[in-house]
Amino acid sequence: MIAGQIGVAREELFETLEDGREVSRWTLRNASGAGLTVMDLGATILTLEVPDRDGRLADVVTGFHRAADYMRDTAYHGAVIGRFANRIAGGRFALGGRDYVLATNNPPNTLHGGQSGFDKRLWQAEAIQTSAGEGVRFTLVSPAGDEGFPGEVHVSTTYAWTADNHLIIDYAATSDAPSPFNVTQHSYWNLAGAGSGSVMDHHLAIAAETYLPVDGTMIPTGEIAPVAGTPFDFRTAKPVGRDIEAADEQLARGGGYDHTFVLGGEGLREVAVLADPQSGRRMIVSTDLPGLQLYTGNFLDPAASGKQGRPYPPRSAIALETQFFPDSPNQPQFPPAVIAPDRPFASRTIYAFESEAV
Ligand code: BGC
Question: Is residue 82's pLDDT more than 60?
Answer without folding.
Answer: yes
